[in-house]
């Protein structure tokens, strides 16, 4: 009998400050594109992060992946680096990157994916910036 493939998700949370501002543009252009996120003196968001892993359950544990391990990986690779930080200034792996949720989610994927056990794969990184605005990344890279 073929094995069932399931998706399991761990939710985490972090608070961080950022500013979306392109120095090559005028203040008016920045305001027009980024709105409140262009505010010169920073602002914060309560980010909700959902990390979904895909795999088949291990017959001995019934788990796709031990969620304690997934929790630890997310904490070590993401939360400890982003929580209560300024995403423009404080985070080496976001240095020189516009800290939009698109870019943050991509960086989160790249940090978590290499640390997963062999029998499961990272399926999705879902990152909420507000209740209304969120981004999903499935590890796809285009041209
Ligand atoms: Ni913002």
Computed Rg: 17 Å
Mean pLDDT: 96
- Report the sheet with the most strands, covering strand number, pairing sense and barrel closure: 5 strands, mixed
Strand content: 25-35%
Label the overall shape.
elongated
User: Element order, helices and strands?
Assistant: EHEHEHEE
| Cα-to-Cα separation, first versus last residue | 39 Å
Query: Helical stretch count?
Result: 3
Bound molecules: nickel (II) ion
Q: What structural category characterises the helix and strand content?
A: alpha+beta
Helical fraction equals: 25-40%
Number of DSSP strands? 5
Concise synopsis of the structure shown:
The protein is an alpha+beta fold. It has three helices and five strands; from the N terminus they run E-H-E-H-E-H-E-E.
Could you describe the 3D structure shown?
- It is a single chain.
- The chain has 143 residues and is α+β, with helices and mostly antiparallel strands.
- It has a domain at 77-125.
- Helix content is 25%, strand content 29%.
- It is built from three helices and five strands, in the order E-H-E-H-E-H-E-E.
- The chain has helices at residues 27-34, 67-82, 101-112; strands at 6-18, 43-55, 85-86, 120-128, 134-137.
- It has a five-stranded mixed sheet with strand order 3-1-2-4-5.
- The protein is elongated.
- The mean pLDDT is 96.
- Bound molecules: nickel (II) ion.
- Nickel (II) ion is lined by residues 18, 37, 43, 45.
